[in-house]
Amino acid sequence: MLRTHYSRDITPDDDGKKVVMAGWVHETRDLGGITFLILRDREGLVQVTLSKKKTDEKLFNLIRSISRESVVLVSGLVKREGKAPNNYEIIPSYVQVLNKAASPLPLDVTGKVGADLDTRLDSRFMDIRRQSIKAIFVIRHHVLKTIRTFLDGSGFKEINTPKIVATATEGGTALFPITYFEREAFLSQSPQLYKQIMMSAGLDRVYEIGPIFRAEEHDTTKHLNEVSSVDIEASFVTHKDVMSILEFLIEKVYSNVIKSCKNELEILGLQLSTPKLPFKRLSYEKAIDIGDIEWGDDLDTATEKAIGEKMGSHYFIVDWPTETKPYYTEPYADNPEICKAFDLMHPRMELASGSQRIHSHDLLRRRIKAQGLNPDGFEFYLRAFKCGMPPHAGWGLGLERLLMTMLNLNNIREVILFPRDRHRLAP
Ligand code: ATP
Ligand code: MG
User: Fold this and answer.
1) Which candidate, 407, 390, 339, places its Cα nearest to that of 138?
2) How much is the pLDDT for 172?
């Protein structure tokens, strides 16, 4: 390893210690007799102080003229210094330029010069060098880690299902067709059918964190064409059971981010609080009253906002009209007009959808037909229901929506490294 320490590994108590640090030239400040090189690594900033008198002349001149964002290795001694970031500085004995950066740069990493989102996304490698952007992805890492730990602790096994599929999960048009040798295939819009098949396979509780692809042509601040979905499916449970798993998970994600990401939240200027459990349950019938829409309508963005303002924090919308939800959703036996489906809502938008699933083969086949789909295309799925399918339930949670609402960001593109939208296919 080239470095011995990240900037955050060092404290003023290390005064006198010999260290090797590596990173990018954030800034140089030339004060004549003294030059400060502010070195940046993943964890923060370090002040490297060179005095003209004490430094080798060649080294001193090299540092003074070095271009911003060049990659350097600094070896030297730690010195306590109250005025430097983290209260220490490095007095270098040796500085090596590992790679020079060209100038001008496409973006200003210090954040003094602003840039619009498109410019930032075009040069994402520079954009993420900014501490406030990097913080988002460090938090994303902790969210994913929390989800895995929580689900593992709740008895779920992580699975991976195919992303190249022959059939639409839910019919509809939101599919990207691809050429699969001599046949047409599609990018998967959801692991739904495969995670259900795993219930018949007896895995009992499964989860997947993976990409889903939606070809909707929307161009909004909360939709992308490729997102990460957190999906679970569990057997011998009801929709109410998986709703409580979902709310416990959300609580755990918030509380772990508060605990593990103090520095990142501070950089982002955020004071998070853990949402209170249990989340309120609002029936679809009551929701449309607040929103002033008709029975059977989906909630549009304005309606979601109006209801969200009234609810104030996370909540569930339950008991949806059967016709608004996919064919695999189980209707209430005593009132088949409504079904055992739920959406988890943040006051700003939908975060997750889930339900009790139909486990009767015959009912499922009828529901597929009733929604105008051809059951022949679903044979590989329906077969699993003929030979011992347990009752089961599950949900799909949009990872980017969870992040953007938690971090109070306006655009979903902020929380994904390389967004795929109607206009963007690169980088
Ligand atoms: P919406 O109505 O808000 O577009 P949806 O009901 O079509 O979402 P689902 O099929 O229920 O989405 O997918 C489950 C979750 O996956 C959603 O609640 C959302 O968090 C996320 N999700 C789905 N599609 C997208 C997308 N295009 N962009 C971002 N997140 C998405
Ligand atoms: Mg939904």
Assistant:
1) 407
2) 61
